[in-house]
Amino acid sequence: MVSKPKVSIIIPTFNRSNFLQSTLESISKQTFKDFEVIVVDDGSPSNEAELVCREFNFCHYEKIENSGGPATPRNKGINLARGKYLAFVDDDDLWYPEKLELQVDILEKEPDFGLVHSYCDCIDEKGNLTGAITGRPGSPEVKHGDCFIKMIGNWTVMMPTPLIRTELVKKIKGFNPFISKATEDVEFFTRLSLHTKFWFIDKALVQYRVHGGNISGNNENYKNLPISLSRVAEDAYLDNRITLDDLFLIQRRLYFKFSNYDGKHLLPNVREARLKILKRSYSFWDRIRFIFFGLRLNLKIALQAR
Q: What is the CATH number of domain 7-218?
């Protein structure tokens, strides 16, 4: 009987076999060896990714019909995964050799933590370090511990850095394929933070490639993110996971934070979110409080726009 690997690594890919080769080479150099890699090809027009995967005996290749974003291939990988822990990496990022060893050790020793993550060094399209970093806060404690209130609307986990307990990923049913691409990871990690504590390693464990093909480089994708995160917060309140004051704080943060992306889209989205919130199962006085909160917020938005 074939034993199950400790870690399952999921890589969605689309038409970037040259980058994928480098990603798999970096994984092959991990000091921790008990892993499998599941590459899910989101309908690339050629078989180049499959040929690359054949070079690595730890790699399992699956091809699906094109879904237009990484959520569906990631979910496919989750369904195929056999490991106790899950890791995600995009097909253009690289791992430092000690990444998995450090993270597995923490999750094995810290049962109250379901996710361990870090920040990234940035590399350019050719793989050269740029000297920039991404995902490191001013204070590491911001990304450590109970993170839901701290993170929603402020930051997210850098996609290629976390190691997560598989049972938690399946508990929240993976990624939401029905929201805008490039926002599904933010929404996923926000939902996950309601169910577990995060451990932050204040060290770069990943090289994050910055180039013209990055989905996250397009701010247009983010215009609906306030609605998605607002829904997560509303559900958390209705499940008694956060207080109404917490919900107000989060709504205020989301409305002002994302006004920087696209003001023309923000206000209709704010109104839509507020109307949907008022239709939820709040008490009479909760509704009154939220209406007054909305009036104050409208006034602040109007004053800022002058």
A: 3.90.550.10
Q: Where are the domains of the chain?
A: 7-218, 223-305
Using one digit for the tens of pLDDT, what is the confidence trace for 3-37?
899 999 999 999 999 999 999 999 999 999 999 99
The pair phi, psi for residue 289, each rounded to 5°, is -60, -40
At 70-113, the pLDDT tens digits run 999 999 999 999 999 999 999 999 999 999 999 999 999 999 99
Q: What is the DSSP letter of 2?
A: P
In the chain, where does DSSP find H-type helix? Answer: 17-28, 48-53, 71-80, 99-109, 148-151, 166-171, 184-192, 225-238, 244-257, 263-278, 284-305
Take residue 89 and report the two structure tokens written for it: 């990496």
Is the Cβ–Cβ distance between 6 and 84 less than 8 Å? yes
Is residue 156 within 8 A of residue 228, CB to CB? The reply is: no
The torsion of the CA quartet 211, 153, 100, 47, rounded to 10 degrees, works out to -40
Exposure of 215 in the CB half-sphere (CA atoms within 13 A): 18
pTM for the model stands at 0.85
Q: From the CA atom positions of the chain, what is the Rg in Å?
A: 20
Rounded CA-CA distance 293/262 in Å is: 22
